[in-house]
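Researcher: Please generate the 3D structure of the following complex. Treat every line as part of one assembly.
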Amino acid sequence: MREFELLQHIFAASRDLGGSVLIPPGDDMALLRLGGGRLLAAVDQLVAGRHFDLGTTPLDLVGRKAVSRALSDIAAMAARPLATLAAVALPPDFGDERAKRLFDAMRSTADHYRCPLVGGDIAIHGDRTHPLLCTVTVLAEPAATPPITRAGATVGDVVYVTGTLGGSFGSDGRGRHLTFEPRIDEALELAERLGAGLHAMIDISDGLGRDASHIAALSGVGIEIDADRVPRPEGIDWRRALGEGEDYELCFTAAGRVPGAVGDVAVTAVGRVVPREAGSGPLVLVREGGRTLAGDDLGWQHGS
Amino acid sequence: MREFELLQHIFAASRDLGGSVLIPPGDDMALLRLGGGRLLAAVDQLVAGRHFDLGTTPLDLVGRKAVSRALSDIAAMAARPLATLAAVALPPDFGDERAKRLFDAMRSTADHYRCPLVGGDIAIHGDRTHPLLCTVTVLAEPAATPPITRAGATVGDVVYVTGTLGGSFGSDGRGRHLTFEPRIDEALELAERLGAGLHAMIDISDGLGRDASHIAALSGVGIEIDADRVPRPEGIDWRRALGEGEDYELCFTAAGRVPGAVGDVAVTAVGRVVPREAGSGPLVLVREGGRTLAGDDLGWQHGS
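Model: Done. Output below.
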């Protein structure tokens, strides 16, 4: 079972936590009631050998990516950053200076996005072959009421993405997956400009195909994507743009007028929300050159 | 450099984060301002091969310990549990059923202490020799205003501990370090009964000697411990009681009347808070059989 499906299965028992839990596990962040306020929280891991190559990646980019991935979840909820906590497991021969550089990079990234690093933990592995692992928790306050989730997509909505998709992983392990900018300000601008017209949102970490299927599953709808309209860098074909992931752009569904850009980041219509019979039919359909392909066949049927 | 000292060094640059950060890194939890409310947050890691032996420890006790360690930080601040997030890194051959059992144990422990599991992450390691690692973030609300920190110890205070110390790690790897009860209710009762007389508190994870030195360092005082008064199980000598750690009992300093027990957990006076010249002198002194030993010589001079 893949990581996402395993986690979904595990948290299926937590759908109704009641009490102070307003949005349970399954969305980009959980929403909690705290006194008279609201708090969003999420956690994310970055593992050497899985999410980056420690041999070729400068430590400042490791720390930056560890924090930026978690911050991207804040963007997905159109929320205001509050604070970051970082736990790091280090091989025993890692060295104090390198540990400090790693934390410096996490701290400066967190500060840059107004999400200060307020707590942390360091554990030293028992064996030098064990991998560097960064676990980042982020806390935020919802900007919209109710906050923007994966569950609000409505039949008739247009599906949009920010930026371009695909090619984030270079052949040398470098690339935009290490240097992306979490779309926090862009998401806040979308929430403000679209108001009640902004229905559902997610950040694209697993690839547009799979992440759109998460919106479709939680919203009880289908999503059709026009492959030719998906914005992508030169030399990237649509399969890579929809399947590779680690873009950390936003995918959202909205009704009404949507600007062609937020800040200096392009916003592109790539599809539409369509009906889906409950519990049946593909979550995501891709229209490409006159053909219609089901997400299942492309490997994206998940979360249903 | 040990893990604690490295983390202290790294966070020395974060002493004044301003804005919404009311207690910066360095205490058991960070305190944040959130709207009109207050929020405490902390993160803790549990690593196979370091904190438990995966070969001999049942998974339900692994999950229980992972969450209980973090909950013990909530007790240390005399706070009310709010929510838990759990991130787990698994070897690729770990198996879905065992992953579910691990999360079930974390969830039931979190539920038991009214701190529901609201979010999580799973990462699969790239290599089967890489260790199981659980990272647990806990969120809480302070019960006292201001909350009980490590920094409030005052000359003349008496130093107390709950329960007994030492012998938590059995020779077979089992023992109380896997089955302890975080002292959340006991801490809340102490805060209520002692009121403004409860000055400083910490949970004993590194051993009473070292953890008392953390209170002394942040409070700008010295602490004298009477070795013979430290409560310990049959067969455990005072050096083990002060040095072994993983007791997860509370150590606190207080003025005024203190009960001999909270709930059914004994409270024992073990020492006193004494003056210390700023930046000099031992943080912890141990009186034992007419001798006075400095924490430095016993390996506990830390955090100064």
